[in-house]
TrEMBL record:
Enzyme class, broadest EC rank: transferase
Protein name: Dephospho-CoA kinase
Taxonomic source organism: Pontibacter burrus
Job description of the protein: Catalyzes the phosphorylation of the 3'-hydroxyl group of dephosphocoenzyme A to form coenzyme A.
Pfam families: CoaE
The organism's taxonomic lineage, starting at the top: Bacteria, Pseudomonadati, Bacteroidota, Cytophagia, Cytophagales
One GO MF term attached to the UniProt entry: ATP binding
Length: 197
């Protein structure tokens, strides 16, 4: 089965592109959502996170303490690397099981903001990068997340792999720059992928 990765920095519009593929009947694995699920439900990972970050990593009710983990890891590169190194292998296993469950589809998509950073691009046959100009991205994020400041957004973008680097490493680029229509770009790729299966 053809496995297509879809990535891009915050605010480029990966989710809307994935929704278009989903309308075409293509299963989409949302790595961020599944990572949260795995962190809540994978007992081995829960033990690893508790050992690495202390008992505060989970509440007394056994819920993931996202605020604590974000505060601990986001401002400390070593802790962030540790968090990712623990979570990503479990998400990789979850994705493998999900692919098995979707064998009837012509191809599948995996949406992940950190496709290259997490090395999960290695599981993919081809990569799509969704691209948008920086000013458009910042405007979108501030509209979507009014609690964030422009400085917050710029800090997040600065931590992500440079967009030009992602575009060089991808086989396909979808431009979501508010100038080019998304649907024709998605349909063209959909036809290309179908022709390969």
């Amino acid at each position: 089965m053809l496995k297509i990765g879809i990535t891009g920095g915050i605010g480029v519009g990966k989710s809307i592109v994935c929704r278009l593929f989903a309308i075409l009947g293509i299963p989409v694995y949302d790595a961020d959502t599944r990572a949260k699920w795995v962190m809540h439900n994978d007992q081995a990972l829960k033990e690893e996170l508790t050992e690495a970050f202390g008992p505060e990593a989970y509440t007394e009710a056994g819920e993931l303490n996202r605020t604590y983990l974000a505060k601990t890891a986001f401002h400390n590169p070593q802790k962030l690397e540790l968090l990712n190194s623990l979570v990503h292998p479990h998400v990789g296993n979850d994705f493998t099981n999900w692919v098995e469950a979707n064998q009837s589809a012509p191809y599948v998509l995996k949406e992940a903001a950190l496709m290259f950073e997490s090395e999960s691009w290695r599981q993919m046959d081809e990569i799509i990068v969704v691209s948008a100009p920086l000013d458009v991205r910042i405007k979108r994020i501030l509209q979507r997340d009014p609690h964030r400041t422009q400085e917050d957004v710029e800090a997040i973008i600065a931590k992500q792999l440079d967009e030009d680097e992602k575009m060089v490493r991808a086989q396909h680029i979808i431009y979501n720059d508010d100038k080019q229509l998304l649907i024709p770009q998605v349909l063209k790729l959909h036809e290309q992928f179908l022709s390969k299966v």
